[in-house]
Amino acid sequence: MAEHEQDWYFTFGYSDKGPGIGHYAKFFGTYGSAREQMFNKWGKNWCFQYPSAEKAGIQKFNLKEV
Fold this sequence. Notes:
The protein is an alpha+beta fold. Helices cover 24% and strands 27% of the residues. The chain has one domain (6-65).
């Protein structure tokens, strides 16, 4: 079964090499292709990958997109 494409949300933690806590990035693709895009853009300087804005806590924590 092929993976479907969708928006994926990635959050950041405390770091001096990325945008830091309070920020998120969004990429469209499959789980794996979105993850690859995130690694290409930010390396290992991020924390978690989520399948929705709600699960990432974007509105709840007032996260800003980078």
